[in-house]
Amino acid sequence: MDKDYNEAERLALAAADEARRANPPKNAEAINAFELAAWAAEKRIEYADALKQLKVAEVLTDRIRDAGEWARGQFAIA
User: Fold this and answer.
1) Are 15 and 53 in contact (CB under 8 A)?
2) Measured on CA atoms in the order 53, 16, 25, 27, is the torsion positive or negative?
3) Is 34 exposed, middle or buried (0-12, 13-18, 19+ CB in 10 A)?
4) What confidence tens digit (pLDDT) does each residue in 16-66 have?
5) C-alpha angle with apex 49: 45 to 52, nearest 5 degrees?
6) pTM
7) What residue segments make up the domains of the chain, in order of their start?
8) Residue 22 CA from chain centroid, whole number
9) DSSP single-letter state for residue 4
10) H helix or E strand, kind and range, residue 3
C-alpha cells in the first residue's frame, strides 16, 4: 500500500481550517487535525513542518480547560 503523506497532511490542514472557521470554533477538532498534519509531515521527514503544525495546535490548547490535551501537545513538541 502506497502512503501519500503529502495528501494526508493537506487533508488534515483543510480539516483544521474548517474546524477553526466553524461558529463556534471546534478547537478540539482543529487540534486533532493539526496533530495529524504534524505526524504526516514527520513521516515525510519534514520536521520543521511538523513542529510548525504542533505549535499551531499548542496555541489552541488550554492548560486549565483540558490539562491532558495540553500535556499531549507539549509532549509531542518535545
Assistant:
1) no
2) negative
3) buried
4) 999 999 999 999 999 999 999 999 999 999 999 999 999 999 999 989 988
5) 140
6) 0.90
7) 5-77
8) 16
9) -
10) none
Count the neighbouring beta carbons within 10 Å of the beta carbon of residue 56. Answer: 19
State the Cα–Cα distance between residues 14 and 72, nearest whole angstrom: 22
Q: Mind giving me the DSSP string for 21-67?
A: HSSS--HHHHHHHHHHHHHHHHHTT-HHHHHHHHHHHHHH--TTT-H
Q: What is the pLDDT of residue 3?
A: 83
Grid coordinates representing 1 are 500500500
Instruction: Tell me which amino acid residue 27 is.
Output: N
